[in-house]
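Complex record, two chains
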Amino acid sequence: MLEQRIIRNLQQTLGKEHVSTDKADLICYSYDATQQQFLPDVVIYPATAEDVALVMKLANAENIPVFPRGAGSGFTGGSLPTRGGIVLSTERMNRILEIDSENLVATVEPGVVTEQFQKAVEKLGLFYPPDPASLKFSTLGGNVAECAGGPRCVKYGVTKDFIIGLEVVTPTGDIITTGGPTMKGVVGYDLTKLICGSEGTLGIITRIVIKLLPLPEAKKTMLVMFDSIDGAARAVSTIIGHKIIPTTLEFMDGRTLDCVRQATDLEVPEGARAVLIIEVDGDREFLAKQVQKIQQLIQPLGVVETRSAETPEESEALWQIRRSVSASLRKVNPDKFNEDICVPRSKVPEMIRKVDAIAEKYQIPIVNFGHAGDGNIHVNVMIDKKVPGELERAHKAIEEVFKGALELGGTMSGEHGVGIAKAPYIPLEISEKAADYMKTIKKALDPNNILNPGKIFLD
Amino acid sequence: MAKLKNLEDYREEIEQCVKCGACRAHCPVFGAERREGRVARGKVALSKAVLDGEIGLEEKVIEDLSQCLLCGSCCAGCPNKVPTEEIVAAARRKIAEQRGLSSFGKGVAAILGRPKLMNTLAKTGGALSSLLFKKLPEHSGLRLRFPAPYLESGRTLPPLTARPFRERCPERIEGKEGMPTVAFFTGCGINYMYPEIGEAFLRALKFLGVTVIIPGDQACCGLPAVSAGAGEVVEQLAEQNLAALTREPVDYVLTACASCNAGIGKIYADLGGDYEQLAAKTRDIFVFLVEMGLPEKLAELPSRGVKTRVTYHDPCHLRTRGITKEPRAILKSLPQVEFVEMEDAATCCGLGGTYSVYHYENSKRIGAKKAGRIEESGAELVATDCPGCIMQLQDAVNHAGGKQRAVHILELLNEVLPEE
């Protein structure tokens, strides 16, 4: 419980209607997609960087933890108010400030929903490629804080590759800007890249400068079913080996397809043990040739069936199988852990075999799907928490999955971040010296440890 | 009397919510007012907290639960298909039980439970100026559709008819031999506000030679009472309608109002037994007309030189029941219509049963978005299949300063049916 004078102070700074201590609001801002819940003491809705700076100054003076929150759709607890205190919602900071078609640069506030931004720039023939699965509801501020990825990243890169400048409120309440609207800039440390993916621990993003691309003229989608995961994996390396980088190379393994067969009436032939969804984009004439070449290259690799789409509607129909996965999995088992390891793309089949062996060892169904093009595998450990012992077995299995990924030169998380969910496993991946380097930065910038404390590193 | 489900009965559905946040992309109320308590995920979390005894039915909880159109958009976009609209309706019933019906809720209960009173009030209303409504006692049932805030807020409303539709027509209209017999469930909108839609309905069925029964003692379907949390009223109305609609054997019960279709077709289905059978017989008029081959018959009519550009608005209560193709099929087959699809055709208009009465400002904001889409489509008319939507769409267009008219598809069909 915060003292009344602190609440009054917040109300004076932000306006009464933008500060809530109502139990109902505390409940509504207590969770994210991890489904864990921690009640904050107060929820605030600032509108400007100045508001945020005043809040951070107050929080430092009074030693109150502050937890920035976009849409609350993260998978690792990055926005959870694990220690009570203040939830700082960016819901009111949701304006697209400028789209500069001449310089291909846009400036937005952090609460803008990613898809709404994409639609706005696409109307002007421009393109913002990062496309996390949550793009219809997650915010750009959250995407930057977590450095979100998505299927299109294999060709275009992840969120941080498009962020060229930021306005940030530091943990001690100063307003700084990093980078700017130029394509080049090497003066001082690259703080923009430091903030991207820092999970709201080093500063609160209040403005984002984004690099845009021209919108590709057309897109073609293919869905290819293979008789083995190795065939699908070889297809990925063959395509890229022939100097074609598709926009998207999504895969689903055999166990995922089993779930889809079990839970939906979508047509998935029995012989299919892996699926690749391949998309290419660019000039119309050039696409037809590229599709033909891809088909020729992968045909000898155990292709069971190929479906291709010409129109957006047909493309959407092909994506149905992929989009049905989450719901299908839940029909098989009620609870799941959705991990997002990343390995060098050539190691994908080896990683899948490791995961299969781990699933066998712990007697837990684990299915794999994700972004084959960049080796980013969504490992879904499916359990029923109500069954005694399953949760413990799941945790052991997950730890082995992480170790397996690291043995292959990979990482525990390609897109979701660490938050609280992966914090215990940090020592597996980051050496003590490297962790100290990071913690030194955090300590210097946030001496009172009040901005999103307890995230990434266990205190 | 069959009973509706309690909030407790929805625990399993509530626990299906994995808090992913996908509903934030679909909820029209959240779009108008960006607060977590306004979105499905928040309402489901609050419902769970209430069930678990973590929070009582305090003011903010009631406020958040009242901020729902029951449009089902969230459920359609939910990976786990959590039926938030059912959960919220059950929560409102719990609120009504524990805290009493709100003053408007009482008005709904009083009027819907007594169709004769509604008849009288509606008839009187048709002949009176809007000023008189303000003098009505607070709990007058007429406030169901015309509560004082409406009149003061500048909402444009159709006048009430002096002679309700069901008083104008016989209880049975004989069709051709060998054709099906149907019961026409008119609903309040057609009966009291838009009798011309009812007339058009009868002409369409006469054209096909279908026998129509219009039971005089049918009542409101109960959907506004669902929205207001008046559970017992819903159960009473269901019982009365079951008796009225099953007195004579019919092949189908037809509706020309999306809300009534969901009321009888879905809410009653959940009551089980005979109600379930009645629900199974319920058809939307356009589903029926397509089954009867009307588009093919319309195709034989001569084409018109000058066509009117018309777009279609999906009423939530049809969209959530999977009825989207049939109304469009009829529209597209009309010789005087040039059909254009508008963006976000499937987004709620913002009426939401009693929602727009409690929250007219938000309702207007949601309607304004719709008016923008209608304008962008270049259509002169926005056609739909629900009197409630027609009222809201026209109000939204008027507030946006647009020239478009909101009409029922049956009215357009009526223009081209051959003279008798």
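Note: Chain B is about 50% helix and 10% strand.
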